[in-house]
Amino acid sequence: MAQRFPQDFIDEILSRLDIVEVVSKRIELKKKGHEYHALCPFHSEKTPSFTVSPTKRFYYCFGCGASGNALHFMMQFDHIDFRAAIIQSAHNLGLKCPEDDQDDELYQLNRSAKRLMQHIQSYYSTQLKQSKKALLYLHQRGLDHATIERYGLGLSPKHQPQLNELLNIPSHQMKTLLHTGMMYTDEHGRYHSRFRGRIIFPIRNIAGETIAFGGRRAHDGPGPKYLNSPETALFKKSSELYGLYEIKQLRVTPPALVVVEGYMDVISLAQHGFNHAVATLGTAINMQHILNLSRHTSHVIFCFDGDEAGQRAAWRAMTQSLPVLKDHLDMSFIFLPKNEDPDSFIRTHGLGAFLKAIESATTSTDFFFEHIQSKYPQQTLSGRAAAAQDALEWVQKIPNSIFRHMMEREIQSHFKLTEDELKSKTSTESPIEPSALNTNVQIQDHVTQILSMLLQDPSIHKHLFISPLLKEHPGNKIKWLFKLYETIQEHPNLSTAALLQRWESHHAYSWLVQLASSKHLTPRSGFLTDCQHRLETLKDQLIQKKIDAILEQSKSRTLSTEEKQALSALIKIKAK
Predict the structure, then answer these.
(1) Phi then psi for 407, rounded to 5 degrees?
(2) pLDDT category, 162, cuts 50, 70, 90?
(3) For strand 58-61 and strand 198-204, is the pairing parallel, antiparallel, or unpaired?
(4) Residues 205, 107: one domain?
(5) Least C-beta-crowded within 10 Å: which of 43, 98, 306, 521?
């Protein structure tokens, strides 16, 4: 976002917004107890799994995992960015936005650029309709009128004046045109159009705004076969996916999204009846792409050529996925025959063959082990040991989850490791939360429950005392408990939604959302008593552990004066 609003202003917006009002203006809600329920607007379902909590001031779908505060709902449902959601909410609440003149100028420039891009797309579309030769080329590629219209294809004629002259852009608006990346200047300061003699593919964001163009050479001659717009303030290659907007227009949550390498692959698949393909835009798969995909499907299928380059690209996709993998996200890989891409494959073999390729896709687990084993000689002990070590190092990048633990067990089974060998080579910490080692299961469970209840009812912090002793407990969850407790102490009026918003960009965000959404056997009125009991239990466990350690030392040697004093002090604390 161009504008960084002060955190206090965001907190004020969230404190004033009525999330029930925001959501009910867009979908039908039914009250059930203290919450509101509805069919989720973000995935297809028959039984309502979408809940809105007025006390926590956030929503959560138990079906697809969509979650957030009132601002997030506006962004996701209305297809607007964070800045627009803030400005719209501030206007509705009668608040003045703390604008920054420089940022506001950039925001206005971006708005003008988007309008200009729409104008350019309309021009290219008209040019295509008037070119029998270009239309014949597309029809020969198997594209019909409906597909051409759906994807907004156009034509940039080879012999034409410069774009600013064609569109009658006045000189004072040239800054906007250059901002779009559709024109550039040479070393002499002369203006040049980016695209000439190319079939044009509009690149649209999830809101349907044209933010860039791709062009395929429509004739033999010099220059690259495919050309994309450069990166601009509107267009970030590393996060956009071609075809995602068109899929969202179908209003059906796809069972899987197939990731291909080019926009012609996406369009050709759609022409033949497969409407759930997207493509990266001149860049390799990265973590941002994976996160983007995971918001729209629970199964991602990567489609690559079967050659060595395709294998390398697939492994990169695999490794980029590991740090953001979630339990509900499946991944598979399709490797097409030599010299085939999705476009040529479906035109030659048809939709049925492509669907069979999807059905027989290689699972992420199988691909992972096949790739690791191909790197090392499996007929030697040293080769198998190196492969096992390599596999474990990659798996440690996966956030702590059921999937990660299952992968560790798969490695143990695959390479015939003992339990001790597995434990010695796996980390007890993860980017999100600690591994639940047997000795700490109860400790971590208490911490999880306290975290969850404190998130769901921050007001109980006023009557809680979290002993500094607990900082000595192992694991990231304890650290999160202190972080949350201290944040609430500094900002005692923050709602659940406002608290979560502060950690939206943190890798633990989805875990915190789950804690804020989890159900408890203890009623809300009993949260305080339950937390106090659990905190006391945690403290007693830690003190007892220290006492046991000193007593264990006394079995083999005489305790020092300091140790005796420490033991006495610990026993007195425990007796209180």
Answers:
(1) -65, -40
(2) confident
(3) unpaired
(4) yes
(5) 521
Rounded Cα–Cα distance for residues 4 and 456 (Å): 27
d(Cα 409, Cα 483) in Å, to the nearest integer?
A: 32
Least confident span in 87-101, 202-216, 335-349? 87-101
* DSSP string over 459-481: GGGGG----GGGGGS-SHHHHHH
Coil, strand, or helix at residue 437?
coil
Residue 435 has pLDDT above 60, yes or no: no
CATH classification at residue 294: 3.40.1360.10
* Boundary (domain end) residue, out of 200, 228, 256: 228
Q: Choose one of 351, 369, 387: the last residue of a domain.
A: 369
Instruction: Please tell me whether residues 356 and 387 are part of one structural domain.
Output: no
Give the model's confidence band at 574: pLDDT under 50 very low, under 70 low, under 90 confident, else very high. low
Which pLDDT score is estimated for 434? 34
Q: Does residue 316 share a domain with residue 396?
A: no
The DSSP bridge pattern shows strands 210-217 and 198-204 to be antiparallel
The DSSP H or E segment spanning 336 is strand 330-336
Q: Which residue has the higher pLDDT, 251 or 403?
A: 403
CATH number for the domain harbouring residue 108: 3.90.980.10
For the CA atoms of 360, 361, 364, 368, the dihedral, rounded to the nearest 10 degrees, stands at 90
Q: Is residue 237 part of a domain?
A: no
- pLDDT value at position 364? 94
**Domain that includes residue 207, residue range:** 103-228
- Which CATH number characterizes residue 568's domain? 1.10.860.10
Is residue 304 domain-shared with residue 365, that is, in the same domain? yes
- The domain total for the chain is 5
- What lies within 8 Å, CB to CB, of 514 at 6+ separation is none
* Residues 126, 198 within the same domain: yes
CA–CA–CA angle 254, 44, 14 (5° rounding): 110
**To the nearest 5 percent, what fractions of the chain are helix, strand and coil?**
55, 10, 35
Are 458 and 506 members of one domain?
yes
Percentage of the chain modeled with pLDDT above 90: 35
Name the residue with tokens 């109980």.
460
Does the pLDDT at position 355 exceed 70? yes
Residue 13 lies in a domain: yes
- The pLDDT confidence band at residue 198, using thresholds 50, 70 and 90, is very high
